[in-house]
Amino acid sequence: xxxxxxxxxxxxxxxxxxxxxxxxxxxxxxxxxxxxxxxKSLIIEEDVNFSNIINFIGEGTFIGSRSVIGNCEKIGKFxxxxxxxxxxxxxxxxxxPFTSPRLxxxxxxxxxxxLYNHDAIKPVVIDNNVLISSNVVIIEGVKIGEGSVIGAxxxxxxxxxxYSIVGGVPARVIRYRFSNKRIKELLKxxxxxxxxxxxTQNSDD
Length: 205
What we know:
Layout: H1 6-22, E1 27-28, E2 37-38, E3 43-44, E4 49-50, E5 56-57, E6 62-63, E7 68-69, E8 72-75, E9 80-81, E10 86-89, E11 124-126, E12 131-132, E13 137-139, E14 143-144, E15 149-150, E16 155-156, E17 164-167, E18 172-176, H2 180-186, H3 194-201
Parallel strand pairs: 1-3, 2-5, 3-6, 4-7, 5-8, 6-9, 7-10, 8-11, 9-12, 10-13, 11-14, 12-15, 13-16, 15-17
Antiparallel strand pairs: 17-18
């Protein structure tokens, strides 16, 4: 049965008529929270769900349709996030007998005090130039290093090192994209200097 949502209707109007003027040079088909600062030349496909925790998306980043951006505060420049990716998913305490929030969070008025503090878990931070393939799940509290690649269908529950390629459940390092010397050089790049990035892209190293 069809149910009309006035809030969704207003959001759709904003996306279609207001966003092209507010975010000139970008192509945005999903609703963005007010807390977010975005740079230029973004592509955000339809039905991407953002929490209010996200506060920055860098220049040239792509986010595919139906992705969920949960407990994540930053997505860097020139990142490629495929379809159906889930970032910053909430973890549940495994040291307690019961994993239902109703039995460890005070707000449900069953337990008298919080037995596990979700707010103490740091948000995900995604550095520049990261490739996240489709159907990846990244739990909260991890950092995704610059230049890294995460293979499709992976489950990421620990930090991903810069310029590493990881995959699997849980994700493990498959290999590094470049030598240690080359990685150190790349980590010195200034992502605000597009000419320098293009020179590096076209180099023979």
